[in-house]
Amino acid sequence: MELSGDCGSGGPPRLRVYLTGFGPFNNVSDNPSATLVQQLAAALGSEQTTSSPRQQGRSKAVPLCFCPFNDPRDSPVPGAVDSLVETAPTQASAVVELCGWEVLEVSAEAATEAVPRIHSVLCRNAQTREPHEADAAKKFVATRETPDEPTEGPTDSAAGMVEEPLTLALHFGVSTHSDRWQLEACAKNDARFPCPDNRGCRPQAEVISDYMPLEACLRSSLCLEPVGADLSHNGFPCNVSDDAGCFVCNFLYFKSLYEGQRSGVASLFVHIPPFSAISLQQQLAAALRLLALLARKGFRQSIGGRSQEETLEKQKL
């Protein structure tokens, strides 16, 4: 599957992203979402070594590429992250600015505290950073393509124009019994935890937002079907899901989608399998391709009936 070009004279498509994973909970002592987020942040140039929240100050421009594997259980090898780095951006590159990353405690209280702060960081970066400062914190994420294959997926009719970068809160969590990625399309206004979270909270059929009815659904503003199709086409097990579960994953995602209606920040939650099902190396490569895909304007929908660019413009007034 060949990606549509968004580059033109305006340069490659751009994305600002804040990454989150989850820490240990119940019988999951080593949460793979925490490891993936830490490795992804390192691949994007983060010098942060701890999982506490921190806004990124600078990173070097390095092109990265998606490398599919024959066996999804292939083990990572020393220098695996470096093997994804090339020396120059390609026409299929996307410029990704890492605004921050952190590993969240698995609790409703931690999610409630984190979401407005994460969206605030993304909005602040989108509105106040000078162009030369943004250039110092960019990464070129390249995707390998097969030139002979037909173009599929959304296209950008405004290629060549300089577009406002997408700002994205990208959340990862583990699905312990899964063997593939699940791109979560929506979250429900329903907190009914099957077990207590890490702070002992166990709500039962309670609303997450008092301003919406129980079980009301909020959907991501991203076009996920072509993204999932692209990853699957390139040999990575992936599907789009309409059920983010009923634990802290759904709670965090609903909070982030709800906050996005005000901030204009897009949100996506990805459930990932254990590394015993799909290796860290392949999941890292898929995450880089995911960022390159989402940077393209054709994969964006409107947020609350308006585009993200319109939302950001209103916030400036």
Automatic annotation (TrEMBL):
Q: Which SUPFAM superfamilies match?
A: Pyrrolidone carboxyl peptidase (pyroglutamate aminopeptidase)
Pfam annotation, one family: Peptidase_C15
Give the EC number(s) listed in the UniProt record.
Answer: 3.4.19.3
The record's annotation in Gene3D superfamilies points to: Peptidase C15, pyroglutamyl peptidase I-like (3.40.630.20)
List the keywords (alphabetical). Answer: Hydrolase, Protease, Thiol protease
Q: Which reaction does it catalyse?
A: Release of an N-terminal pyroglutamyl group from a polypeptide, the second amino acid generally not being Pro
One of the GO BP terms on file: proteolysis
Top-level EC class, please? hydrolase
Q: Which PANTHER family match?
A: PROTEASE FAMILY C15 PYROGLUTAMYL-PEPTIDASE I-RELATED, PYROGLUTAMYL-PEPTIDASE I
Query: What protein am I looking at?
Result: Pyroglutamyl-peptidase I
Question: What's the source species for this entry?
Answer: Eimeria praecox
Cite the source lineage. Eukaryota, Sar, Alveolata, Apicomplexa, Conoidasida
